From TrEMBL:
Keywords: Membrane, Transmembrane, Transmembrane helix. This is DUF4271 domain-containing protein. It comes from Chryseobacterium carnipullorum. The keyword Transmembrane helix applies. The chain crosses the membrane at residues 6-27, 97-118, 162-181, 188-208, 214-237.
Length: 238
């Protein structure tokens, strides 16, 4: 895969993170009536690389781990030191996360189907092909090399940019489903996040045989495009 593929993939992923930040902010403000304290374009385990403040002391931060974006909400004055109140707040937060990720997954599915249909392809045929080969893989009726050959054939048949959009779209629908499941129990969030990260690199390096330079190009494009989106967030958060 050439540099253009990595750049296109980085642009699509960064665009998803950007839209996620905006939708998550307005979902918390309008649907869940929760105050948002911080919006993160990319993750960070400590201080962000850069940050700025807009209205209502809302901090928009740029992290150094381009794997996801997130919003951090305020617990509110209704949550006191009482354990029961804290449990109610945690339960409400997990419920809101479940609903939001369900909405995101549904919107992505509708978008993918619409793009497939507009591009002149049959969504049912594409989903049937992917579903059949995934089932054959997990049922043991086909090995991973056969699945990789199928992926490469789809890449050739549908064209680079369409296939990248389709693959990333399906991936984020899967992530939405995973996040819905992880929101049911707090301990599942970190566990599933670790599984996704490890699985991504194992598949990428071992099975899809993506070169190390591809990841360098992908990360660089993610950082550059993500930083541009980070600066643009001030114009979309009202």
């Amino acid at each position: 895969m050439e540099i253009n593929t990595a750049v296109a993939l980085g642009g699509i992923v960064a665009s998803y993170f950007f839209v996620f930040c905006i939708l998550a902010y307005y979902a918390n403000i309008l649907m869940f009536k929760t105050k948002v304290n911080e919006i993160w374009m990319f993750m960070s385990f400590s201080k962000p690389l850069y940050a700025y403040t807009i209205k209502n002391d809302l901090r928009i931060k740029f992290g150094y781990i381009p794997l996801s974006s997130l919003v951090k909400t305020d617990s509110g004055e209704d949550v006191g030191p009482n354990d029961d109140e804290l449990k109610k707040y945690d339960k409400r937060t997990m419920k809101n996360a479940f609903i939001f990720h369900g909405i995101m997954g549904t919107m992505l599915t509708v978008l993918i189907v619409a793009v497939i249909w507009i591009s002149g392809y049959d969504p049912l045929v594409i989903f049937k092909d992917f579903g059949t080969h995934i089932w054959l893989l997990f049922s043991g009726k086909n090995d991973f090399s056969g699945f990789v050959n199928f992926i490469h054939s789809q890449y050739t048949a549908y064209g680079k940019h369409f296939f990248i959009f389709l693959s990333v779209g399906i991936y984020f629908v899967f992530i939405s489903l995973v996040m819905m499941i992880s929101s049911l129990y707090s301990f599942l969030s970190a566990l599933m996040g670790l599984v996704i990260i490890v699985g991504y690199f194992v598949v990428g390096f071992k099975f899809l045989e993506l070169p190390f330079t591809f990841y360098i190009d992908l990360i660089l494009s993610l950082i550059v495009i993500g930083f541009i989106y980070f600066l643009l967030l001030r114009f979309f958060i009202k």
